[in-house]
Amino acid sequence: MKIIGFTGMPGSGKTEAVKVAKELGPKVKVKVFSMGDIVKDEARKRGIEINDENVGGFATGERENFGKGIWAERTAERIKNISDGIVVIIDGIRNNEEIEKFREIFGKDFMTIAIHTRTKERFGRMIERKREDDIKSKEEFDRRDERELGWGIGATIARADITVMNEGTLESFKQKIREILLQITS
Fold first, then answer.
1. Considering only CA atoms, which of 39, 44, 40, 45 is closest in space to residue 73?
2. At how many degrees (to 10) do helices 70-79 and 35-45 cross?
3. Would you say 60 and 151 are in contact if contact means Cβ atoms under 8 Å apart?
4. Among the residues of the chain, which ranges form H helices?
5. pLDDT digits over 6-32, tens only?
6. Which pairs from 149-153 meet CB under 8 Å and 24+ separation?
């Protein structure tokens, strides 16, 4: 089993990269696990209203109470029963402790891809996409970036096995991701 973790600041293009992975075709079977969705699922179970501040605060609290690798542990529990021959995509790795936890559990089968995009572009994308936990102002955007950087995402991006710049058209970005994923999975 090959396990590929995407990391990058909010709005960098991780969701688009996941879409590309899902479209790799019949030769490459893909199963996606979104760490953000796992956080939101757990927050809903606890009756927490889903918005950026609440979900971010909950994720931070869990890291403080159970260690920075807690979301990797909870994600790995869902991955353990996946059969060989499946490419697992993990969307949303936020810190080095999560990388270390995935490497501890999955060994050489795990690798990371960082997606980097300019701040101005990320902000515009987040305003346009209107997800339930997204920002609605520049102040919220700045707070979210600060929180993510506080979790250690900058170091995670810096130590990724592969870095992809997402500075051009959506189609050129998708082509880069497609080529990388096909190379890794062949």
1. 39
2. 100
3. yes
4. 14-22, 35-45, 52-66, 70-79, 96-106, 119-129, 138-151, 153-158, 170-185
5. 999 999 999 999 999 999 877 789 999
6. 151/59, 151/60, 151/63, 151/68, 151/94, 151/95, 152/68, 152/94, 152/95, 152/96, 152/97, 153/7, 153/8, 153/9, 153/94, 153/95
Q: What is the pLDDT of residue 59?
A: 94
DSSP-derived 3-state class of residue 21: helix
d(CA 142, CA 102): 29
Tokens of 154: 């900058």
Kindly report the pTM of this predicted structure.
0.91
Q: Where are the domains of the chain?
A: 2-178
In 3D, which of 88, 111, 99, 106 has the Cα closest to residue 151?
99
pLDDT band of residue 67 (cuts 50, 70, 90) is very high
CATH architecture of the domain with range 2-178: 3-Layer(aba) Sandwich (3.40)
- By C-alpha distance, which of 7, 59, 27 is closest to 18? 7
Quote the tokens at residue 170.
């959506």
